[in-house]
Amino acid sequence: VTLPPGFSPSIILSCVGLSGLTALLGIQKKAEIDRTRPQTFVVSGAAGSCGSLAGQ
Fold first, then answer.
1. Averaged over 30-42, what is the pLDDT?
2. CB 9 within 8 A of CB 23
3. Fewer CB within 10 Å: C terminus or N terminus of the chain?
4. Where do the TM regions start and end (predicted)?
5. What is the pLDDT of residue 6?
6. Using CA atoms, how far apart are residues 53 and 21, in angstroms rounded to an integer?
7. Burial category of 52 from C-beta neighbours within 10 Å (exposed 0-12, middle 13-18, buried 19 and up)
8. Cα–chain-centroid distance for residue 23?
9. Rounded to whole angstroms, how far apart are CA atoms 22 and 49?
């Protein structure tokens, strides 16, 4: 996903509230996923709000 100039992922995901920011933090900090290269990861709680956003 290409972000508009001047927008960070945290600003974009703030519209989905705390669930979106929690999903972002989990992906970037805990799973250490780098969005500059394709990677595969498993979201074990994908039925909940944070997990479904992380999976998307």
1. 80
2. no
3. N
4. 6-27
5. 87
6. 9
7. middle
8. 5
9. 10
Sign of CA dihedral 32, 34, 40, 43: positive
- Single-letter residue type at 48: G
Closest by CA position to 53, among listed 32, 26, 31, 34 = 26
Report the share of the chain in percent with pLDDT over 90.
Answer: 0
Question: 3-state secondary structure string, the chain?
Answer: CCCCCCCCHHHHHHHHHHHHHHHHHHHHHHCCCCCCCCCCCCCCCCCCHHHHHHHC
Residue entry with tokens 């498993």 = 42
Query: Distance between the two ends of the chain, CA-based, in angstroms?
Result: 11
Between 35 and 1, the more confident residue is 35
Please, what is the average pLDDT of the chain?
82
